[in-house]
Amino acid sequence: PRLASSVQQLQMRTMDSTYFADLNTEFKIEVAPDAAAKMRAALDAIDAQRDDKGKLVSYKGGNFTVGDFLHWTMGASADPTMGRQLIGQMKAAQDSQLVQFVKSLTESSLLLKDAEKNKIEITSAEWTDLKTRFSAGIDSLRVAMQLTPDMIDPKASESDRSKAAALKVDQFFDRMT
Questions:
Q1: Which residues contact 171 (CB under 8 A, 6 or more apart)?
Q2: What is the C-alpha separation between 132 and 140, in angstroms, rounded?
Q3: 69 has a pLDDT exceeding 80
Q4: What pLDDT is recorded for position 55?
Q5: Half-sphere exposure of 21 toward its Cβ, with a 13 Å CA cutoff?
Q6: Which among 28, 97, 104, 150 counts the fewest CB atoms within 10 Å?
Q7: Read out DSSP for 1-56?
Q8: Which of 10-14, 53-57, 154-158 is the most confident on average?
Q9: Sheet of 62-65: strands edge to edge?
Q10: Residue range 33-39: average pLDDT?
């Protein structure tokens, strides 16, 4: 069983690599020479550049823009415990790493478009797994913020519980900053 599992994982990696290589060839993905500089500038002014149509990557039939980059990046950095650190790492990354990152994001975007075009949908089992992992993430965040029943007296009034919860959230963000 372990050998079969290893072979299956190797086959899946090979299929992924082949798919993305074909995607690059089919769509002629090309990263703009100034992409890394635009990405860093966008990370310094996220709110102002959320809708920026500046081209980072061009491909047959479209472009991956600064706004697209920020959309994907904000999704990836939404974790309040690690998000700022991730953005800091991106700002400090080498140009070659940013180029590879934006190319990967473009490939992911094209993958989703391809799945949509071919009517590939998430199964009910995958959806259940996604919801379970999301709930686990919320539970982890509650623990990190100390918003568990043993930290906030369930016998206290709703107003007092709300105040205690607000204090815990403020303390959490104070620790983060």
A1: 146
A2: 12
A3: yes
A4: 96
A5: 6
A6: 150
A7: -HHHHHHHHHHHHHHHHHHHHHHHHHHT-EE-TTHHHHHHHHHHSHHHHTT---EE
A8: 53-57
A9: 30-31, 55-59, 62-65
A10: 95
Please tell me the total number of residues recorded for the chain in this structure.
177
Q: Are strands 55-59 and 30-31 parallel, antiparallel or unpaired?
A: antiparallel
CB 43 within 8 A of CB 87: yes
Number of H helices, E strands in the chain: 8, 3
pLDDT higher than threshold 80 for residue 33: yes
Distance CA 113, CA 167 (A): 43
Distances (CA, A) of 65 to 59, 109, 117, 139, 143: 11, 11, 21, 34, 37
**What distance lies between CA 99 and its chain's CA centroid?**
17
Q: In the predicted model, is pLDDT for residue 86 greater than 90?
A: no
For helices 66-76 and 35-44, angle between their N-to-C axes, nearest 10 degrees: 60
Question: What single DSSP character describes residue 82?
Answer: T
For the segment 52-67, the average pLDDT, to the nearest whole number, is 95
User: Percent helix, strand and coil across the chain, each rounded to 5?
Assistant: 70, 5, 25
